[in-house]
Amino acid sequence: MQHSNIFDYKRYRYFKLAVIIILIAFAAYLLFEPAVGHYGGSWLGYALGTASALLVFILAWYGVRKRRYRSRGTTQGWLSAHIYLGTALTFLATFHSGLHFGLNVHTVTYGLLLVVVVSGFFGNYAYMIYPRLMTENMGEENLDGLLLRIAESDKMARQIALLMPDDINDTVARACRETSIGVSLLEQLKGFQPDCPSAMAVQKLTSLGNDLSVEHRKLYRDLYSIMVRRESLVRRARQDLMYRARMGFWLYFHVPFSIALLMAMIAHVLAVFFYW
Amino acid sequence: MKISHNSRGLLSRSYRTISSEEISIGRGAECTIHLLDPRLAMHHAVIKKLDDGQLYLVAINGELSVDGAQLQNVELTHGKTVNIGPYQLKVEPAPPDVNLAVSLSLQQRLPDDFQDLKLRTHEPLRGAASFKRQFSLWMVALIALIFLVLPLAQNLIPAVHKAMAELPLGFDRVWSPGHISNSHLHFGAQCFNCHEVLTRKVADKACIKCHRDTPPHIADPALQKRVFKTTSLFSDGIRCAECHREHKAPHPIARQDNATCVKCHANIKAADANTKLPNIHDFDLDHPDFDLTFRTGSTEGGAAQKTERIPQAETARLIEKSGLKFPHSQHVGLVQGPNGIWDVRELSCTNCHQQEGKELRLKPIVYQRDCQLCHANQLQLGSKNNTFSVPHGAEQNVLNALKAQAPKDLARHLDTLKTTGCAYCHEVQTAQKDEALPWRITPVQINQDWFSKAHFNHASHRTQQCQSCHKVEHSESSADVAMPDRKSCLRCHSGNKPKYKRITSTCMSCHDFHSSHIPQETIKKIDGKKLNDTAPD
After folding, report:
1. Does B144 contact A at CB distance below 8 Å?
2. What is the CB neighbour count within 10 angstroms for residue B132?
3. Closest approach of chain B CAs to the CA of A130, in angstroms?
4. Closest CA relative to residue A102, chosen from B178, B519, B119, B299
């Protein structure tokens, strides 16, 4: 069976559909301009608005569809349609607006739509890029395996450090005790901790290694290499967390703003018919 | 004594007796009590006698604490407990042959590295589901409140409506779909000023609250009502708002395209079976040729002008009866002046046709301003040595002047005026029997408003030469009509759609919807007066 992904699903079926929708809408937009300029209340505006509203409901239904194991069509197909039709929707809604914006429910609805679409694009990007980067970062390991290896390094480092001077022992102990991975949301998204105890320990060890007695030298070399390896493990764990956080973070916007968009759209349509 | 836990978690004790002056405690292998724990210093503390002869625990590189207080020296008396890093040292009852008995027990075990690290490693986006749920609910609630509940409350709850009406903005302002035109902006922030009833389109009576003097499109009130109030399933008649589109600023509020006009005028018989108007879609396509409005006299008492409209195609009837003898051909370009053959003057149209107002409408021709400069000697009588002038004006005034100036030659002078003086420019009629004068001047009746159903703006055409529309260079008679026809307009103008090198011209370019049945001259006169009697209901 031919390998396909969400973008070339069924030979770009939904891509073609989206392009056709956009072209038809654009041609209509160019050809039928009302005397007072484009606006949502012309017949073309109503047509574009109705089509946009239908698309919003179809796209929102994807959220329900993907949680069901049995339903019409494949989830892959639905996602492909979700992405391409979402892009087409942005064009339709823009034509529907006639590029008139103001401080009102109509522009708020459009703004919410843009937030949903842009966050969706980021999600799309995240799912295109990060899985590969995650594999590159982790290889065949998982986060727990990485943590286990860090814990082992902790133990070994501490054992060696027991025989070392106090400042080295303290540095190692502190690094083992205080290293944390992805505690705050910002740290998870950045994938980087500016004052990471592990990195600082390696730095400090470098400066502490200069005036050691002969019997400590070999131990120091072992300890240093363990701590450097440990730091790279910590960094990889943080990277992994970053990718996973970024792959989920866009949904903080995509989902709540979609729900808000549905509400705003209902208010937008009702407002139009409350005040003709 | 070292107290530890065995593999089953039970307490076990191991005893050791040390003979030494000082007992060092620490991580270092050389320490007397060697405790392998990274939380201890290499040389953490030492037990020794101080100057007062008592045994003390003295901190070296590590820290000692008693009941949470950090101390440098701790006197080791019976029952004393001291924390040395994770260990607790307790002074036990000493057997008789021993100076000091202490027990050491590990109080804080080294945590399991993996479990400890796991505790410090957070799952990505912890609590995402509940955050998304909460965030969604708050946003939905906020949007529903601001954009639906509050505006509806203002409409449906009279108390809220009353309270909000006093404020510069209403809650329903958020429903406004676009900018309000400047002229309506001062009340436009309160929607109820126009949108009087929820779910109903803006009715004409909302407009008429201010625009009381707007005349209707059709003169006959019954027909106006029938045509404009015809409702259907999808339409509740032709409202003001069909053409006057608010919330579209900076676009002009009145629609400028033909679409709404053509709705009726493309099939005008459907609106009024008795109408004589033809069907029209577009000025370029099927607009009929123009009708010219001729004055045919005035009503009794002279209150209003009687007029007749004659199609331009009927050229035989296009005769202006102005009462003047005026060949335009002799008044354009280089012409002979009144002072002999060397008096050559160049005349342009505006020498006689004076313009006024921002639309550059032409003032009516007046002798004193427009003719006298050249034609004064037509009113001069008498011999070379004894000339005198008679005034321009009513015949009686001329007669009076003649009686005063030359009573003896009255008959001769009157005859001169009849044949060459007045008659040089005016048509002269034979007088009625009861009149004092033997002849009289035909009343001058110069047409001022040829296109009474349209609105022509000379100012918009000021870049053009007069002769490009008015062909008067070869006109020998004042009966000639030099008004441009539809074809000459179409040289520069197109219809509703733009054409190459032609200006788009809609119905509204020439016609005024609200005063289509009122002549332009009348509009000028009634400017500022109310037209309540003709306002649409």
Report:
1. yes
2. 19
3. 14
4. B178
Distance from CA of B177 to the nearest CA of A (A): 7
pLDDT attached to residue B5: 64
Judge whether B46 and B24 are in contact, CB under 8 Å.
yes
Beta bridge partners of B59: B45
SS3 B39: coil
ipTM score above 0.95? no
Q: Average pLDDT in the B207-223 region?
A: 87
Q: Does B27 touch chain A (CB under 8 A)?
A: yes
**Cα–Cα distance, A243 to B124 (Å, whole number):** 9
Instruction: State the amino acid at position A93 in one-letter form.
Output: A
- Partner-chain contact B136 A256, CB within 8 Å: yes
pLDDT classification of A4: cutoffs 50, 70, 90: low
User: Measured between beta carbons, which residues in chain B are less than 8 angstroms from residue A163?
Assistant: 29
- The nearest alpha carbon in chain A to B113 belongs to A151
Residue A261 main-chain phi, psi, to 5 deg: -60, -40
* Contact residues, chain B, for A147 at CB < 8 Å: 114, 117-118, 121
Question: pLDDT tier at B520 (50, 70, 90 boundaries)?
Answer: low
CA dihedral sign of residues B291, B292, B294, B299: positive
Q: Which two tokens stand for residue A226?
A: 């363990």
Q: Do A257 and B29 touch (CB under 8 A)?
A: no
What span, in angstroms and rounded, lies between the C-alpha atoms of B122 and A184? Answer: 8
Please tell me the predicted confidence (pLDDT) of residue A89. Answer: 96
Question: Mean pLDDT across the stretch B409-421?
Answer: 86
Answer whether residue A230 shows pLDDT above 60.
yes
E-strand ranges in B179-321 read 291-298, 305-311
Q: Which two tokens stand for residue A163?
A: 């025989």
Contact B143 A264 (CB under 8 A): yes
Residue among A192, A179, A176, A183 nearest A238 (CA): A192
* Amino acid symbol at A251: L
Convert the pLDDT of each residue in A45-101 to its tens digit: 999 999 999 999 999 998 888 888 777 778 888 889 999 999 999 999 999 999 999
Query: pLDDT band at B433, cuts 50/70/90?
Result: confident
Is the pLDDT reported for residue B527 higher than 60? no
Per-residue pLDDT at B2: 67
Number of helices and strands (H, E) in chain A?
Answer: 10, 0
**Span between the terminal Cα atoms of chain A, in Å:** 55
Contact pairs from chain A to chain B, CB under 8 Å:
158
pTM here is 0.76
Provide the pLDDT for residue B535: 36
Say yes or no for a CB contact (<8 Å) between B27 and A105.
Answer: no
Using the beta-carbon criterion (under 8 Å), do B147 and A248 form an inter-chain contact?
Answer: no
CB pair distance less than 8 Å for A260 and B143: yes
Q: Looking at chain A, which residue has its C-alpha nearest residue B118?
A: A147
- Give B 442-481 residues with CB within 8 A of chain A: none
Using an 8 Å CB-CB cutoff, list chain B residues near A245.
124-125
Give the residue from B216, B219, B220, B186 showing the smallest Cα distance to B204: B216
Count of positions (residues) in chain A:
276
C-beta atoms of A166 and B148 within 8 A: no
Overall average pLDDT of the A202-217 stretch: 86
Q: Over 90: is that where the pLDDT of B11 sits?
A: no
Question: Measured between beta carbons, which residues in chain B are less than 8 angstroms from residue A37?
Answer: 248, 251
Name the phi and psi angles at B104, rounded to 5. -120, 125
Beta strands in B395-438 (DSSP E): 428-430
pLDDT per position as a tens digit, B218-265? 888 888 888 887 666 566 678 888 889 899 888 888 888 888 888 889
User: Chain A partners of B239 at a C-beta cutoff of 8 Å?
Assistant: none
Burial of B195 (0-12, 13-18, 19+ CB in 10 A): buried
